[in-house]
Amino acid sequence: MRIAVDAMGGDYAPEQIVAGALDALDSLQDDKILLIGPEARIKELLGDPEVWQNKIIIHNATEVIGMDESPVEALRRKRDSSIAVMAKLAKEGHADVILSAGNTGACVAAAQMRMRPLPGVERPGILVVFPTIHGPLVLCDVGANITPKPSHLHQYAIMAEVYARKILKVENPTVGLISIGQEDAKGTDLIKSTNQRLKDDPSLRFIGNVEPRRMLEKPADIVICDGFAGNIILKLTEGMAESIFKYIFHEFKQQKPELLQHFMPVVEKIYAEHDYTEYGGAPLMGIDGTCIICHGNSDASAIKNAIMVSLKQARAGINEEIAKRLKSLEE
Amino acid sequence: MRIAVDAMGGDYAPEQIVAGALDALDSLQDDKILLIGPEARIKELLGDPEVWQNKIIIHNATEVIGMDESPVEALRRKRDSSIAVMAKLAKEGHADVILSAGNTGACVAAAQMRMRPLPGVERPGILVVFPTIHGPLVLCDVGANITPKPSHLHQYAIMAEVYARKILKVENPTVGLISIGQEDAKGTDLIKSTNQRLKDDPSLRFIGNVEPRRMLEKPADIVICDGFAGNIILKLTEGMAESIFKYIFHEFKQQKPELLQHFMPVVEKIYAEHDYTEYGGAPLMGIDGTCIICHGNSDASAIKNAIMVSLKQARAGINEEIAKRLKSLEE
């Protein structure tokens, strides 16, 4: 496999991205990593060529799309940005996987514009794996498609189901649909139509609507939602966890500063057990190829994990399985 | 003021509801509490008539709408339910305030069907006050209107602004709009149109889109959202807080059971500082009267607070101010 990595994407690029690529080298088989970014700088960070020269290929890109830039406009203007060059490599058949911790919107747009959709897929969706105390929870879509149709959400359920089985090794994964109440009649027209579609699909183990209150209790193996709600859930969860731990630290410091040292290991263990980087980056499901979107704050270890999981995904035949499932749905 | 209280609504009804009403008696002026539910049972719970007979009036209601019943259907079937009788009292001019910890949907539907909308209001919305470390944050709508139009969200901003000034005593409150990115161009068509409307209204201190990640950092005094997203935010926040504290307890117990006793007061202080019952129940804004929806798990203290805040709201002239603001908007 050839994995194209955007060396300029994310808060700690290029240093941590390049370091992550180097860390991944030992786990590669015949695979190659293509690092996209300013050649001289990347070479400098890679260091001794003996270590990497047979496994890493540098593809020069002189521009960078910022985290806050408008995706489509930035892609149009910055033809030589690392994200644009990365997507072009995939389009021209030089890369099997593309991976970036940069501007998510630009990454999704580049993949959608440059890579073909999988046969039968109406709209790609971003899938994330949430760590919970009861095991990994798959959430899809978290922002690629903010005004989906019921058929899109139905396809997300199928794609996530294949992912959960093939990558997370969940047998017969259950599927839930995010709504504001468990009853079938609760929610918008989109939710009600989607609920009916999922219920009517015998290939899915649909358990009905699930409420966000129970998200961390893992109400199902897979939870489906529109990209607007999914993005809110993803970001709110992250922000809440940060805020709550911050409150607790603050209170400990005020009330029992001498105990703060004992609280740290507890928090560290919780963080370690809920380390989402373990599951790699978030795949954009439904394109003909493998596109992985990493968190903006990815460090070398997160990038290394994302590379490893992306390889697993590219080798697992997920896309073939999805195309087959969607085809049988049409029949 | 006459405050009609649904004695049968909520997880701890009727005991805790009746106890809350009794606790509120000392703080009443000329006000009266109307307790709605099975007369004999309520009388029994009220105890010595000397204590309450000049301040509490019992209105008999023989049926109860369950927490999970379909609101509109239940209201149609159970004409003598406490919620139906409560709304009827308001309709007939016998109550200034209605208050329930029961089925939220039934409460909203009863208020909408029985009480008139405020002049100029297109759709009522539920407002909640979120406690954060930086002070109270107002969120509206959290579930009354799951497919709003931009004009509805605009009205929620105005109603919430009046509430923040009159009840929370916030001078010149800032208003934000929940979206999946801060930039004006981020979000659904609903969000983009609403953003433009809020920006064009000189009576509002609109600060633009806010991301859910920063919710607990209080990005603005008021955050506006559609009822579907708002309900997700409300429920997810509640569930997350519970889950995270549960994780921490679990880890402490595993790692340092001897320190659990020191952790408890820290958590208790955080809970006390973030006690949403301090701000009373959630008002349904935009109806001609005062309708307060309490959390299903309300205890006597929560009910007492809700009664007190509802009185404050009913006396503050909020509805008159809202009607005036909406009228000037039309001109």
Tell me what you see in this structure.
Two copies of one chain form a homodimer. With about 325 residues, chain A is α/β, with parallel strands linked by helices. Helices cover about 45% and strands about 15% of the residues of chain A. Chain A is built from twelve helices and eleven strands. In chain A, strand 10 (about 280-285) and strand 11 form a beta hairpin. Chain A starts with a strand and ends with a helix. Chains A and B meet through helix 9 and helix 10 of A and helix 9 and helix 10 of B.
In brief:
Two copies of one chain form a homodimer. The first copy, chain A, is α/β, with parallel strands linked by helices and 331 residues long. Helix content of chain A is 46%, strand content 17%.
The helix content of chain A, as a percent range, equals 40-55%
How much of the polypeptide of chain A forms β-strand, as a percent range? 15-25%
Structural class of chain A: alpha/beta
Largest interface: chains, residues each? A-B, 52 and 51 residues
Order of helices and strands of chain A: EHEHHEHHEHEEHEHEEHHEEHH
Name the average pLDDT of chain A: 93
Molecular shape of chain A: globular
What is the total tally of β strands of chain A?
11
Give the radius of gyration of chain A.
20 Å
